[in-house]
Design brief:
The complex is a heterotrimer of chains A (370), B (405) and C (141). Chain A is α/β, with parallel strands linked by helices. Chain A is 40% helix and 12% strand. In chain A, strand 2 and strand 3 form a beta hairpin. The longest helix of chain C has 18 residues. The chains are: A alpha/beta (370), B alpha/beta (405), C alpha/beta (141).
Chain lengths: 370, 405, 141
C-alpha cells in the first residue's frame, strides 16, 4: 500500500498549508495552481511565489479556465524550469501536458505534480451566471458519495480516466468521507516522499483505487455508454454531422482552447485552407451556393485527423464555442474510438510515442492486401 | 437625389426582400448574392454566397442574431482575389461599416461588389437565442414590426443610432455629415428602408450609381419623396441617441481608473474569442498570439517574484488594451465580441465606450465614407497641440495589476 | 445538381510501385475503369490525410490510396506511415458514419498490373453500388 500523509485540515487548506511550507522552506520556488482573483469570484491559474498570495489559492475549485497542461507547456516551451515548481493539475491536464511534452512542447523536469482524484469541473459559463456557486455544495456532496454530478461538463460525466497518472502526489477525494477534516496526500514517487518529509501530518497507508473510485468509474462508464448510444442514434452520418456543425462560424476558438492544438500557426488558419476565386466559381456553378467562410467541416475533420489521437476529453472546446456546438462530445467520441484502435491512452506514459508519429512493421497486416 | 423605389410588403418583410432578390437574380442584376441563410432542420444562421433561387427561399435578410459578422464573411470571398463576378451583399449597417474599414485595410476588394444595407432594429444576444430560439424568433418578429421592445436586444444595439442611413446623405451624397446630423453610413450602394411603410411597403433607396444600376431593370415603382421613412428613421435615431448618452455616462463611471478596468476583465480566460470574431481584427496571426510575447521559464518566475504571483495565461490586460489600441478607432460596435465571450464579459460595451470617445476626438467615424483615411495612417502638421505639454500625473496603480492581470 | 460523371474516384498512387504498376496495366492494354483519376505522389507516405478528406468533401465518390508492399518502400518507411494514416482515417470516418467504404488502401507493386486492374475494377463496382457521394450537392459544408 502506498505511503500517504494525512494533514489535519480540510483538503483545500491542507494542500495550501503543505505548499506554503514548501515555499517558505525554499524547497520550491513557485506554486502553480488556481487562485481567486479579488472578491469578484473569478478564478484563474497563477504562478505564486509569495506565501501571502498563496492564501488566495483554491487548488480544487471545480473550474478550468484554461487547460493547465497548456499553461505548463507555455511555461517550459523555451526550456525546462531551472527551479523546482509545484503544480496542482487535474488528471486530464497532466495528460495533456504529457502529450505536449512528447511533441517537444514542454518539459516535465523539476515539477512536483500534484493531482486530485477528479470529480470533474463546471462549464465556463457557470461562473458568470452564478450557477457554480449555487451548485458548489451539491458538488462536494457528490464527491463524498462518489456520485455523478450532472452540473459538470459533459466530458467530465463520461470520463473514466479521473485517477491521475504521472502525478507525484495524488489527493484523495472521491468517496472519501470527512474531506473537511483531513487531507490525504498519497505519495507516488520518491520525489513526493522527499518533498513531503517536512510536512506536519500523520503517516498513513492509502490506496489510490478504492470502493468509491470503483463506484464512480462504473457510473461514468454507464453514462458514457448512454452517450454513445445517443450518438449512434442521432449523431452519425453526413446529414447529422452537417447539422451538428451548422452554426459554426469558423472562428477556430475550439482549436485555440485545445491543449493539444499547440501549433502557433495552424494549418487551418493558413492560405492553404482558404478558397481561391476558382473554387468559389466552381461551387457556385456546380451547387448554386456555398457557405461562407467555406471549409467548415473540412476544418473539423482535419483537426480530428491531427489531434483526436491525443484528445484527453477535457471539454475546453465546447465551453469556448460561441455558438454552443458540442465539439467536445464529437471529438472525444472520435478520440475514444481512435485511441482504442491504436491501444493508446494519451498521457499515460511519457515514453510512449504518439501513434501518428510512429509505426510498427508488423501491424494491421490485413490492410492493403485485399 | 436619386429616386427611391417602393416594394410591396403585404406578405411580410422577408418575403418582400426575397422576392426583390429573386427578380434581381433572374434579371441578372447580379451574378451572386451574399445573404444569411437558416440551415434546414437547425436553428443555425450562416452566410451563404448563392446564385440559385431555391437557396434564396431559405434566406433570412435580418436574422434575430448576428453569429458571424458580415465583414468577416465578405473578406473571405475576396481574400485571394476578386471573383470577377457581380456580387451583391445584404448586411446590417454595422457590418457594412466593418466592410468599408476592411477595404481601407486592404482586406476586401469592393470592385464588382454592390453593398446593400437595411434598416436594422438590432440583434438579440447570441446566448439568449441559443437558450430559447423560438422565444427570440417570436419577439424579434414583433420588434421588426413595431421597433418598440428594446430589451430583447444586445446593449450595444439598444444605443445604436447608426442603424440606417442618414437622411442628409441622401440629399447630398458628396458632403461629409456634420456633428448635427448624426451618423450615417453613406458607404453602402443601396439601402432598404423598412420604417414608415406601415407594413404595406418597404423602400429601395439607391445611394450610388452601382445601387441605381442594380435597380435599373427591376419592375418597381418610383417614389419621389419618402418622407414617412425619413421621419421614421429620425424618430428612432433620437431615441437611440438618448440611450447612448445614458450609456456613456454609466460606462465612463464604471471604467474610470485602472482598478475598475482590471475588474471588468477579472473573469477573462484569455481565449481571444473576442479578437477572433471581430471583423476589424483581420491579422492571420495576432500579435498577442505570436512569439514576441513568449518568455522563458526564468523570465516568468522573475515576473512572478516581482509581485508574488503571476496570472496565467499571461498578459490578459495587455491583450485587451493592446487590441484596443490596434482597432478601437475602427470599432463599429457590432457587438460580435460580447456575443462570443464565454465568460459573459461586456467587451462590446467597454470597447464602445472607449471607441466612441476616441472616434469623436479624431473626428472619425469608421465606415462612414470609403475615402476617409484611417486616423493613424494620416496626420496634419497643425493639430493636437494640447498633448505636447506634459500633464501632472498621479501615482499609477498598474503595479497591483500584474499579479491579478 | 452537380452533374459530374459518376463515379469519380481519386487514386493517390506512389510513384515507384503503384503508379508504375498502373502504367504497366495501361501498356498491357488491361481494362481500367475510366472512373479512376490518378494523382501521383512520390511515396504513399506523402498522402496527407487532408488530401483524402478534401477529395471526399469536394464530392469524390471514392478515394484509393496505393503504395508499395510493406518492406518494399522506395524510401524504406513511408508506407508504414501511410498504413497508420489510413487506419486513422478509417476510424474517424467510421465513428462518424461517413461511409468509410468509399475509402481504401492497396499495396500494389510495380509488376502487379493485374492486381491494379482487379483492385480498381472491384472498387469501382463497390462505389457504383453505393451510388454518388451525397456531399456532391451539399452546400452547408
Amino acid at each position: 500500500m502506498p505511503k500517504a500523509v494525512k494533514i489535519k485540515n480540510s483538503t483545500d487548506k491542507g494542500i495550501v498549508e503543505m505548499l506554503g511550507g514548501l515555499l517558505q522552506s525554499d524547497k520550491i520556488k513557485g506554486v502553480f495552481t488556481l487562485k481567486k482573483m479579488n472578491e469578484s469570484g473569478a478564478v484563474a491559474y497563477s504562478l505564486i511565489t509569495e506565501v501571502d498570495e498563496l492564501e488566495k489559492a483554491v487548488p480544487f475549485y471545480p473550474f478550468m479556465p484554461m487547460n493547465a497542461g497548456r499553461a505548463l507547456s507555455t511555461f517550459t516551451l523555451d526550456g525546462e524550469t531551472q527551479e523546482p515548481i509545484a503544480a496542482v493539475l487535474r488528471p486530464c491536464e497532466i495528460r495533456a501536458f504529457i502529450e505536449l511534452v512528447k511533441r517537444a512542447q514542454g518539459s516535465l523536469e523539476n515539477f512536483l505534480l500534484i493531482s486530485p482524484v477528479c470529480a470533474g469541473v463546471f462549464p465556463l459559463k457557470s461562473l458568470a451566471d452564478g450557477s457554480l456557486e449555487k451548485n458548489l455544495s451539491r458538488y462536494w456532496e457528490s464527491v463524498e458519495n462518489a456520485a455523478l454530478d450532472p452540473n459538470t461538463r459533459e466530458t467530465c460525466q463520461s470520463c473514466e480516466d479521473f485517477i491521475p497518472v504521472h502525478a507525484d502526489m495524488t489527493i484523495v477525494t472521491v468517496g472519501a468521507k470527512n474531506l473537511e477534516e483531513g487531507c490525504i496526500v498519497i505519495l507516488n514517487t520518491k520525489k513526493a516522499e522527499e518533498f513531503a518529509s517536512g510536512v506536519t501530518g500523520q503517516t498513513v497507508s492509502e490506496e489510490t483505487e478504492t470502493e468509491g473510485t470503483e463506484k464512480l468509474k462504473k457510473l461514468r462508464r454507464e453514462w458514457k455508454e448512454t452517450v454513445f448510444e445517443e450518438f449512434e442514434r442521432n449523431g452519425v452520418g453526413q446529414a447529422a454531422l452537417i447539422k451538428t456543425f451548422a452554426a459554426c462560424l469558423g472562428c477556430h476558438a475550439c482549436s485555440h482552447a485545445c491543449p493539444i492544438c499547440y501549433c502557433t500557426f495552424c494549418d487551418f488558419d493558413s492560405k492553404t485552407c482558404e478558397y481561391q476565386p476558382v473554387s468559389f466559381h466552381s461551387e457556385l456553378e456546380q451547387k448554386g451556393g456555398l457557405k461562407v467562410p467555406p471549409g467548415n467541416i473540412f476544418f473539423h475533420l482535419g483537426r480530428m485527423a491531427h489531434m483526436a489521437v491525443s484528445c484527453v476529453r477535457c471539454g475546453m472546446c465546447s465551453d469556448v464555442c460561441p455558438v454552443g456546438i458540442p465539439v467536445a462530445s464529437v471529438f472525444s467520441r472520435v478520440g475514444d474510438s481512435l485511441q482504442e484502435v491504436f491501444e493508446y491512452i494519451p498521457g499515460r506514459n511519457v515514453e510512449e510515442p504518439v501513434p501518428s508519429g510512429t509505426y510498427k512493421e508488423q501491424e494491421f497486416v490485413e490492410i492493403g492486401e485485399q | 437625389m436619386k429616386s427611391a423605389k417602393t416594394i410591396p410588403a403585404d406578405r411580410g418583410l422577408s418575403h418582400a426582400i426575397i422576392d426583390l432578390f429573386k427578380q434581381a437574380l433572374f434579371k441578372k442584376s447580379f451574378d451572386a448574392l451574399l445573404i444569411p441563410v437558416k440551415i434546414p432542420e437547425t436553428e443555425a444562421y450562416s452566410w451563404v454566397l448563392l446564385n440559385e433561387e431555391s437557396l434564396l427561399d431559405k434566406a433570412v435578410p435580418l436574422p434575430p442574431v448576428m453569429p458571424n459578422q458580415g465583414g468577416n464573411a465578405l473578406s473571405h470571398v475576396t481574400k485571394h482575389g476578386n471573383l470577377n463576378l457581380k456580387i451583391a451583399a445584404l448586411m446590417r449597417p454595422c457590418e457594412i461599416r466593418a466592410v468599408v474599414e476592411l477595404q481601407k485595410l486592404k482586406q476586401i476588394d469592393l470592385e464588382n461588389i454592390t453593398l446593400i444595407s437595411i434598416d436594422c432594429p438590432g440583434a438579440a444576444p447570441l446566448s439568449d437565442y441559443m437558450a430559447d430560439p423560438e422565444k427570440i424568433e417570436k419577439s424579434y418578429g414583433i420588434l421588426l414590426e413595431d421597433w418598440e421592445s428594446q430589451d430583447i436586444l444586445r446593449p450595444v444595439c439598444q444605443i445604436c443610432e447608426k442603424f440606417s442611413v442618414s437622411v442628409s446623405s441622401i440629399s447630398s451624397p458628396e458632403e461629409m455629415p456634420s456633428e448635427e446630423t448624426p451618423t450615417t453610413p453613406f458607404s453602402s450602394d443601396l439601402h432598404i428602408g423598412l420604417l414608415g411603410g406601415n407594413g404595406k411597403e418597404i423602400y429601395a433607396i439607391p445611394l450610388t450609381s452601382k445601387g441605381e444600376e442594380l435597380l435599373s431593370n427591376l419592375d418597381l415603382e418610383s417614389r419621389e419623396s419618402i418622407e414617412e421613412w425619413e421621419s421614421g428613421v429620425r424618430e428612432i435615431q433620437k431615441k437611440k441617441i438618448m440611450e447612448r448618452d445614458k450609456f456613456n455616462t454609466t460606462w465612463t463611471e464604471r471604467l474610470s481608473g485602472t482598478d475598475k478596468f482590471i475588474d471588468a476583465f477579472d473573469r477573462c480566460i484569455n481565449c481571444h474569442n473576442c479578437m477572433r470574431v471581430c471583423p476589424v481584427c483581420y491579422c492571420r496571426q495576432c500579435y498577442f498570439d505570436s512569439r514576441t510575447l513568449r518568455l522563458s521559464p526564468q523570465e516568468m518566475l522573475t515576473r512572478a517574484g516581482q509581485r508574488g504571483a503571476l496570472r496565467f495565461p499571461l498578459d490578459t490586460i495587455l491583450f485587451h488594451l493592446g487590441r484596443m489600441s490596434h482597432m478601437v478607432l475602427s470599432c463599429v460596435s457590432c457587438g460580435a465580441c460580447e456575443d462570443a465571450c464565454p465568460m459573459s464579459i461586456p467587451v462590446a460595451q467597454i470597447f464602445t465606450t472607449v471607441g466612441d470617445r476616441m472616434q469623436k476626438d479624431f473626428h472619425y467615424m469608421p465606415g462612414r465614407n470609403r475615402e476617409e483615411i484611417l486616423p493613424l495612417q494620416d496626420f496634419l502638421e497643425d493639430e493636437w497641440h494640447e498633448v505636447e505639454t506634459p500633464r501632472e500625473t498621479g501615482e499609477s496603480s498598474a503595479g497591483e495589476a500584474e499579479k491579478n492581470a | 445538381m452537380n452533374s459530374d460523371s459518376f463515379p469519380k474516384i481519386i487514386g493517390f498512387l506512389c510513384n515507384w510501385c503503384s503508379y508504375t504498376g498502373a502504367d504497366l496495366a495501361g501498356t498491357a492494354r488491361m481494362k481500367i475503369p475510366p472512373a479512376i483519376r490518378v494523382v501521383r505522389v512520390m511515396c504513399s507516405g506523402r498522402i496527407d490525410p487532408l488530401f483524402v478528406l478534401r477529395a471526399y468533401l469536394k464530392g469524390a465518390d471514392g478515394i484509393m490510396m496505393m503504395g508499395c508492399h510493406p518492406g518494399d518502400c522506395h524510401y524504406q518507411k513511408g508506407n508504414y506511415n501511410a498504413r497508420r494514416r489510413y487506419v486513422m482515417l478509417d476510424s474517424i470516418l467510421g465513428t462518424l458514419g461517413l461511409e468509410r467504404e468509399r475509402f481504401g488502401l492497396w499495396w500494389v507493386s510495380a509488376s502487379e498490373a493485374p492486381r491494379y486492374a482487379q483492385a480498381t475494377k472491384d472498387f469501382t463496382e463497390r462505389i457504383e453500388e453505393m451510388g454518388p457521394n451525397p456531399l456532391r450537392d451539399e452546400i452547408f459544408l
